[in-house]
User: What shape does this take?
Amino acid sequence: MEKNILVSLKNVEKEFPSGEGVLKVLKGIDLDIFEKEFVVILGESGCGKSTLLNIIGGMDSLTGGEITVEGQNLSNITEQELTLFRRKYVGFVFQAYNLLPNLTAKENVQFIAELVHDPMDVASVIETVGLSDHANHYPGELSGGQQQRVAIARAIVKRPKLILADEPTAALDYSTSIEVLSAIENIVKKHSTTFVMVTHNAEIAKMADRVVKMRDGRIDSIIINAKPLRAGELIW
Assistant: This one.
């Protein structure tokens, strides 16, 4: 069965000013991301994986090449159009949880829900990430893993076509990481959302449908996992 392409990158380059010259972070990326797949972008620190994720999510602009999402070319659109794209299409999960400290877990999710036209039911989203018993707790009353699950709930409540996660378990210990990865696994399975995660942890990549390995600003390899592992089966 032919898969539908959600995101397509053609010869994408990204440069940053550096001293008197430029630093090339992405050096010609060609990549298609399909609907309803779980992709892990794997690589050492500094290889360009977070920059690539930011470009896919419309948080950073590319220097060369082209990116399209559902056929819409994002390469040369206005800041306002990018803002609307991010709001409509993309859910973000970062290493830092970025929760509003004066709002409860439920209120944090509700805050994002009110930004979009047709959000999911907030209570059901909280339940999906396993936090129904903590819905009325403030971030300061939650563990790191619980805060990250609130962040995941905020990402999915918008019904995004695409969820992007940048090292979502990097600040967490092993057991808490598995807890968060189980929540991600549940979302991928239940909501059939395209999920792209950046990590340096090769064990986490075993969960993915496809693993994109990056090295020095380029794609080194793309591996298809015939039998992705469950979160509970990962060991590191």
